[in-house]
Amino acid sequence: MMVLSKNLEGAAWILASCIAGTVFSVGIKALAGAIHSIEITAIRCIIGMMILAPLIWRAGGLRKTLKSDHWKIQIFRGFIAVIAINCGFYTLTVLPLTTATTLFFTAPLFVTILAPIMLKETVGWRRYTATAAGFAGVLIVLRPFDSAFDPNMLVALFSSIFFAFSLILSKRLSVTESPTTMMAYFAIVTIIFAVPPALPLWLWPTPLEWVILVVVSIFATCRTYFDIKGFSAGDASFVAPFQYFRIIFISASAYLIFSEVPDTYTIAGASVIIAATLYIAQREARLKTTKPGAAAA
């Protein structure tokens, strides 16, 4: 009974993450055409640092928090994350929200491909088959040989690729680094790499745009926190499927606010991608419960 309650708690946190992700995605879409996505990224990073500042101060200050034996990897991770965020925010401004969100969910597919190379993990044929099926879903969404193909969809995939790199680097660092140190490096490094490109494009936001930017930054930070709480509270195999409520929330919001209706190809591709990434998550969770030496697949 206790396990069930913990799983339900984890699911609640993940649903909160889905709501937060929907809010900041809609906020970015609302700013499209008024503020460049690169400037949105820079402001999000600055406000994110302001949100984290009290946590860093309570942890002993910036100097103590930044003490790390892997500072080069920390910096590289922040740089990779800025690219992922910039690509992601850009696609939210130029693509239908449901299409962009669907392509963002390909990150676990890229993690599966990169894990054997970067983490020396063993990936068996079952997960590789699921990954191949997931990429078939990507092709359904992209329709690369159709007149409806939009090159901006490739930018969404680039966002997922760089986000996958960032996830794997985070996994490596989490073995020896504290969460506070990782968050502090992330906040500072993203500001360093995000602000300079934004300066030539800078347009001072109106009061309403500032409100939206603050909401975007707060909910983007909350989403990360909610994800951490969700996966720490419940079993990954139980809570992972709840992440896909975000596509439902996004689709409903896009229809109600922007009159966007996802086409048949996006719905079909999203179904395949979701099924593939769900299988990968379930398989990884199952393998973690097997005894050491069990064959990975």
Quick description:
Helix content is 77%, strand content 0%. With 297 residues, it is mainly alpha-helical.
Descriptors:
297 residues; mainly alpha
What structural class do you assign from the helix and strand content?
mainly alpha
What kind of sheet is the major sheet? Answer: none
How much strand? under 5%
End-to-end CA span:
31 Å
* Fraction of helical residues: over 70%
Q: Which word captures the global form?
A: globular
Radius of gyration: 19 Å
Enumerate how many helices there are, as a single number. 13
Number of domains: 1
Low-confidence region ranges = 291-297
H/E topology pattern: HHHHHHHHHHHHH
Number of DSSP strand runs: 0
* Average pLDDT: 88
Tell me about this structure.
The chain has 297 residues and is an all-alpha fold. The chain has one domain (2-288). 77% of the residues lie in helices and 0% in strands. It is built from 13 helices and no strands. α5 (97-104) packs parallel to α13. The longest helix is centred in the N-terminal third of the chain and has 29 residues, at 2-30. It starts with a helix and ends in a 9-residue tail after the last helix. The model is unreliable at 291-297 (pLDDT under 50).
Topology:
Elements: H1 2-30, H2 37-58, H3 62-65, H4 71-94, H5 97-104, H6 107-118, H7 125-142, H8 152-173, H9 179-198, H10 207-233, H11 236-239, H12 245-258, H13 264-288
Helix pairs in contact: 1-4, 1-10, 1-12, 2-4, 2-9, 2-10, 4-5, 4-8, 4-9, 5-8, 5-12, 5-13, 6-7, 6-8, 7-13
